[in-house]
Structure formats: structure tokens, C-alpha cells
Amino acid sequence: MGPGRLTLAVKYKRVSGDAVEYAVFARKTRAEPLRQVGSVVAPDDDLAAAYARATYDEERWIEMAIVRKDHVIALWTPGES
Amino acid sequence: MSLSGLVLSIADNKQMLGLRYAEWATRAPSLEADIAAAAMGLDDLGHSRVLYGCLDPLGEDPRTANRETDPASLSALPYFDEPWSSWAHFVAANAILDTAFTVMVEACVNGKVEVLRHRLRKMLTEERYHFLHGRSWLRSGIEKGPLDEAWKQAIEWFGPPDGDTAGLHKEGKLSMGPAELKARLEERVETKAPAIKADWNGWDPIRRRTRPGAVDDLTFGMLRGLEEKRFAPATTEKQA
User: Fold this and answer.
1) Where is B121: in which H helix or E strand?
2) Order of all β-strands in the sheet with A35-42
3) Least CB-CB distance to A47: which of B40, B132, B142?
4) Mutate which of A5, A20, A53 to disrupt the B interface (most B C-beta within 10 Å)?
5) Contact A47 B133 (CB under 8 A)
6) What does each C-alpha distance from A32 to A55, B16, B144, B168, B202 come to in angstroms?
7) Using CA atoms, how far apart are residues A40 and B134, in angstroms rounded to an integer?
8) A64 backbone dihedrals φ, ψ, rounded to 5°
9) Long-range contacts, B37-43 (Cβ 8 Å, 24+)
10) Does residue B176 sit within a domain?
11) SS3 per residue for B141-165
12) Contact criterion met (CB < 8 Å) for B39 and A16
């Protein structure tokens, strides 16, 4: 056993096909509003939370939240106003 | 085993868990999982340092001089002896063993030893994300072999029914004994442990494992800083 013989025996469908995009929001102080700091791709809310925390935890945020992008209701988009 | 022996075992296991997580930081099935592996590795290496720092305040440091020369002197589980050969090994460790260590930390935080109550509490917050990661991947299904092995080693690590952790629980130093620890682990990962018959006669109470063996030479060299020294400029060596 060793790093040279690593295998991925199972095809993990959930990596791309089953995964959805989540927007990540955070803020550093109570005075500022939440703003989008990035996004992650994950197959469920739990994993999205773990990925968001791992990816965007470099700053000292006081609050972080994630939202499934397909749950966002767009009123208009660029070019439609 | 004393409480400090148990804390040393949590520390050694978290150190090895952190190193093995880090080995997967460029091999996980997605970029997000790569980053999570790196972040969880850093968390667990940090936790091990906090735990080593608790040994002195506990009044007894069980670390011996041969930790510099003998890999079998480390109190880590057989699961960490060799690099993991598949993603299933990663997930089983993440879901079962990482959570088993967290459950033991919980037992320390809710016990009556002040230094552990205060210093280990923050770990539980950070471990929440390891748990979410492990449970989510576990739900997707992994091979039975690594999963059963992780369960077996977790239950052995909790200790025999009448062993040291049972004694520490009776004294109030831990809020849970072996049976409660196992039940708590099952509750957290929302699954029953497979039927396992532990061979307590062959159980090593210091290393909390039944299988002999030790961490591989390359990893042991990394732990002692030998790998880093190979790349240090000669001048730095002279100055040191």
C-alpha cells in the first residue's frame, strides 16, 4: 500500500452529476451586510456547509451562510432591467 | 491507563488522522473535497497540539524518550499505520474514527477535569464540519471493508467494558464509558456498529489497539522532522 497505488474503486456520481451549486455569504462585522464571497458545488446541504467552511474560512468572518443557487428567485438579470 | 494516557492517545491519533487527511489534499474526488481534506487535516493537527499541551497541566506526561526512535511507541491506531489506498478508507476514517475521537473529546469536555473542560471545547465546534463531511460521504455508500475496520478499531479504542475508560467514567473524569461512547457514536452517524467481537486479551492498553505494528517509516520520519531537514540548506544546519 502506498501513495503510488491509490485507487478510486467507486465512481462517485455525486461529484458532478448529482451536485448543485451553493452561493456562500459572509460578513466580518455586525455593521456590514452579508455579501457573497464565493460558491461551492456539492450534492447536499451538509457537504456544501463543510466545503464552504473549508474553502472560505481564511478570513475572520462573524457569520457565514450558504444558499442553493436554484432557490434564489431572480427578479431580473443583467440586461433585463 | 491514566487520563493523561488517554489524552495522549487522542493526540497521537488526531496527529496521524491530520497527516493522512493531508495526503488526500490533491487526490479527493473533487476540488471541494481536496480543500476539505486539507482543512480537516490542519484542524486535526492543531487539535493534537492542544491535546499535547494538556499533558503537563494534567500532572503527568506519559511520553517517553523512545518516541524519537521507535514508531511503535506512538499510541495511534493500526488504521493510520499506512497511507490510505482508497477514498473509501478516507471516508470511513472521516465518518467513524474522526467522530469516535470527537465523542471522546465530548466525554472529556463534559467530565470534571477543568483543563480538559476549557481547552477542548472549541474542538467540538470545528469538528462539526468534519462530521457533516464524513456523514454525507458515508450516506453515499462506500465499500464495506474499510468501514467495518474503522468501526472495529473505534470500539477497541473506546476500551474494554471494565477497562480504563469505564474507570475514568466512574470517577467522573469522563462523562461516558465505553458503552455510552459506542452508543453516542452510533447515534451521531445514524447507523449501528457491525457485530464485532473484540479480542480484549490481545488488547494493548497503552496503544489502545489489538493489532501489532506501527506507522510506516516515511511518515515516522515526517513526524520527527527528518523529511524537512533533508531540504534544509546546509548553512541553516550549521547555524542550528
Assistant:
1) helix B121-139
2) A35-42, A20-27, A63-68
3) B132
4) A53
5) yes
6) 21, 40, 48, 48, 59
7) 17
8) -140, 140
9) B37/B90, B38/A54, B39/A53, B39/A54, B39/A55, B39/A57, B39/B129, B40/A54, B40/B94, B40/B98, B40/B129, B40/B130, B40/B133, B41/B17, B42/B18, B43/B18, B43/B126, B43/B127, B43/B130
10) yes
11) CCCHHHHHHHHHHHHHHHCCCCCHH
12) no
Domains in chain A, ordered, with CATH? 12-70 (3.10.20)
For the beta carbon of residue B51, count every other beta carbon within 10 angstroms: 25
What are the pLDDT digits (tens) for B58-85? 988 899 888 889 999 999 999 999 999 9
Q: Which of A37, A42, A47 is nearest to A20 (CA)?
A: A42
Which residues of A, range 1-40, sit inside 8 Å of B by Cβ?
Answer: 1-3, 5-10, 12, 14-16, 19, 40
Nearest to A40 by CA among B13, B51, B111, B136: B136
Of B27, B88, B130, nearest to A10 by CB-CB distance is B88
Element spanning B54, H or E:
helix B31-55
pLDDT tens for B210-225 read: 999 999 998 998 888 7
> What are the cell numbers at A11?
465512481
**Joined grid coordinates for residue B130:** 468534519
| Residues written for chain B | 240
Q: Output the pLDDT for position B236.
A: 55
Query: Does any domain span residue B193?
Result: yes
Residue type, B225: G
Domain encompassing residue B162: 3-213
Alpha-carbon distances, residue A58 vs B14, B35, B96 (angstroms): 22, 12, 27
Shortest Cα distance, chain B CAs vs residue A80, angstroms: 33
Q: How far apart are CA B135 and CA B138, in angstroms?
A: 5
Asked if the ipTM is above 0.90, the reply is no
Q: Which among B104, B143, B91, B127 has a CA at the least distance from the CA of B3?
A: B104
- CATH no. for residue B150? 1.20.1260.10
Q: Is A15 in contact with B29 (Cβ distance < 8 A)? A: yes
Report percent pLDDT > 90 for chain A.
64
